[in-house]
What does this fold into?
Amino acid sequence: MPETKHQTTSAAASVEEAYDGLWHLVAVGVLELDDDDGGPCPRVLRTVWDTIAEAARTDTASPARVALIDVGVGEGHPDLGSVAGAEAIDLATHPAGARYRPDDAEPEGKTADEGRKADSFFAALGGDLTRFGPLTQAQTERLGAIVSRLRHAPGTRRRTAFYDRAFPAHGTAAAGLIVGDPGLGTEREAGIAYAGVDPYSRLIPIKTAFDPDPESLVAALLYAEAMRADVIVVPREFPDPLLAPMVSLPDAGGSGDACARKRAALHGSKPEDDLDAGRDPDWELLRRLLVAISRTIPIVAAAGNSGESQLVYPASLAEIEGAGIIAVGAVSAYGYRAGYSNGGPVTVYAPSDDSEVLDRRQARLDPEGATQPPEIRAAGAATTVPFSRRTIVATDLPGDWGYAGDARAFPGGADRGGLYAAFGGTSAATAIVGGVVALMARAARIAGGPLDGPTAKRILRETGRDAPARAPVAPGEPPPPDAEPVALSDARIVDAGAAVAAVLAGGAPPPR
It folds into this structure.
């Protein structure tokens, strides 16, 4: 992405000269370009940010609060000034949460990795469990015990700089796509025009382990609620409870019943007795909590990257009637479903990168690549689908731990090595839709009420646009070669401008 000289503090102007690297903002309608401008980089005519600011009759509406449940967000990136570091929490290394304290002196006799006790980070968590809907007595008791522990157990403040810098590349990329802010006119200005879908909102990183247990995920959801999040973004999959480890059960008939339960868990069918009886009950508690919270706070979740017709967890819960869980699939710059993207009951699609596919259904091969032998490439398939080489630009961790693997100094004056990298998958698409829902939440405040999950889901579906027939969704992308369109199920591509307009027109519910 080229470096630019900014002449204004407008976020729209900050991306104008480099919008090609942020083509996804144009593709989803955050930026509107001058189609009659024949130059290599057409003028930005209008932005959704302008629409919201004009409706609010101020410079901007109050920021939405976005909770990102992922593997953390790297600190210190000049384009991530909208990340609320003081409210970030690490649930991967401490069950009651840890926070980074970069400016505190180490207590005498303690090492850099040892902690300092802090008051509970969950003190704002409400104790009334009726808001989560009907629960069994056992679930009510278990959730009550978790809530009580979190409200009273002290967290820790410690120097977790190594963990913040080594592991959260995925969360750092997602954060930039959601709330990236070029920081114009501030000391953190990077000199590179980069912006997320909603740079005017705030993001709260909630860090969980790569393979989290259900109790830590319950804690993550409760923390998002306690922090008054307007939207929860989950650009990853959680362990699927259908495949969760089985616990030992008394079995009068020997091992046969336990084996039947195991097979049922793996193959998606239940034996005559209740499958849930043989599984850690916290998984079912997590499922109920996801659905209950989504009815108030939209939860945006990734559909998954295995190219299947079923969704990963928790996006798969989007099928539950009344749930405000938004399952997001990915499309390439050509508007076709990405080669890796799961399909089926997707709520909405958003732009991302692509992947090659060669099977009995389609041939989607990089014309400039040589990943398949010529005889395989020429074998033919039922459908020829154009492969797009265009990817998504996202914020990155500096050094070897980032996606770019750039070990140059950071921030290091004019040397900005490692600040940006290519990113993709349904993770990138989910982050983009999460930013759109943040825009909708800001618009809902102007319209007079909060944005709940089912309403956000309905508006995204109703305002999404159909995938173009053999026409690119990215600006400046040459038309693909003739090919048959690939069905996107009944979902559409997200349209930020139309979604925000619908909310401002009264699509959001009245104040509760």
Remarks:
- The first strand starts at residue 31 and ends at 33.
- Confidence is low (pLDDT under 50) at residues 1-18, 104-115, 246-278, 409-415.
- The chain has 13 helices and 18 strands.
- The two ends are 45 Å apart (CA to CA).
